[in-house]
Amino acid sequence: MNDNIILCDTTLRDGEQTPGVAFTYAEREMIARALTDAGIDELEVGVPALGTDEVDVIRQLVSLRLPVRMLTWNRAVKADLEASFRSGCAGVSISVPVSEQQMSRKLKKSPAWVLEQMGQCVLRAKQDADYVCVGLEDASRASADFLLKVCREAEQLGVNRIRLADTLGILTPLELAHRLSGLPSELSVPLEFHAHNDLGLATANAVTAVQCGFRAVSVTVGGLGERAGNAALEEVAVILKQMLQKKVRFNLRRLGTICFMLSLATHREIQRNKPISGQDVFTHTSSLLIDGIKKDPANYEPFPPEKVSRRHSLALGKYSGVKTLNRLLEQNGIFLNNEQIDETIKKVRALSTRFKRPLRSQEIIENCCRARH
């Protein structure tokens, strides 16, 4: 069996459910091409049940014949599947609620009805789809017995993969391991975990699921998604490939470009401290850390930034020291005596406090250095 971990990107579906985010066709094509070129395993490309415009967009994406598996998202409703088939997409994901809360309070149906409906839709899907995934919505609140029953039923129906969703983002990694770690050994069909980030645990839960034997994880670029979003592609890919040494096809060196592209397409600025893609995540300002980095970057960097086409940088701020300032000034042909250096470092710290960020070299030279030798 292929032991690669499958990254299932849902930026074009769940990512577009981010409040205020909507992609044009040109943007969808650009995102699909960039992710495919970087080695993503699968793209969830939309929801055909939204209407004919969505069906047409998905049909155009399918016509690109990109070397990647594409899936549509569908409720366990035959009309949704018929819309998917009109799009020409060869893969479908069929979502069914499995918690008592959602079965009784949302669908107002019994567990037996859910099983029957899932069965009918899977059988219909298998007539026209090359790949069928069953998504178990709100799996994190389902009873253990019913969850296993649904999984075994889906397995007997011949689905290609089962997706378990922490729809409300309420699991902790330890609870996930306790509740779900036994499932992969109970089933022959591969499992996928779909994490939401309501409590800031999406990436941690996605990685934990892989460590528990799940073969696939849902991700979105930048962690886009409904409410607080989903597990971030860049975080999950780096942790799995670089830190855990898992087999992942995705080219980590493409992450920066892809994250920046999504930032432009969504008009959402990347936070400076955003893991992997943020401007400051490989920047050091404390004189203690800078000294350690100079001696050996591994002292203060979890992995070489070059792995994601970044590089570490030094910045001057409140916690910067004289050695760092002197090095910067000498590189620019500026030589100050001890008294001038002490005065300059005070100005650097004051300006950094006022600006609420590290200072750029030119700002230091223009605003802090008056006497030059």
UniProtKB/TrEMBL annotation:
Quote any Pfam family the record assigns: HCS_D2
Provide this UniProt record's keywords sorted from A to Z: Acyltransferase, Transferase
Mind listing the GO molecular function terms for this protein?
Answer: 2-isopropylmalate synthase activity
Q: Kindly provide the name given to this protein in its UniProt entry.
A: 2-isopropylmalate synthase
Enumerate the spans annotated as FHA domain.
289-341
- Per its UniProt record, what InterPro entries does this chain match? AIPM/Hcit_synth_CS, Aldolase_TIM, FHA_dom, LeuA/HCS_post-cat, NifV/FrbC, PYR_CT
Task: Give all residue intervals belonging to the Pyruvate carboxyltransferase domain.
Answer: 5-256
Q: Which CDD domains match?
A: DRE_TIM_NifV
Give yes or no: UniProt keyword Phosphoprotein. no
Enzyme Commission numbers on file: 2.3.3.13
Q: Which GO terms describe its biological process?
A: carboxylic acid metabolic process
Ranked from the top, the taxonomy reads: Bacteria, Bacillati, Bacillota, Clostridia, Eubacteriales
Native organism is Acididesulfobacillus acetoxydans
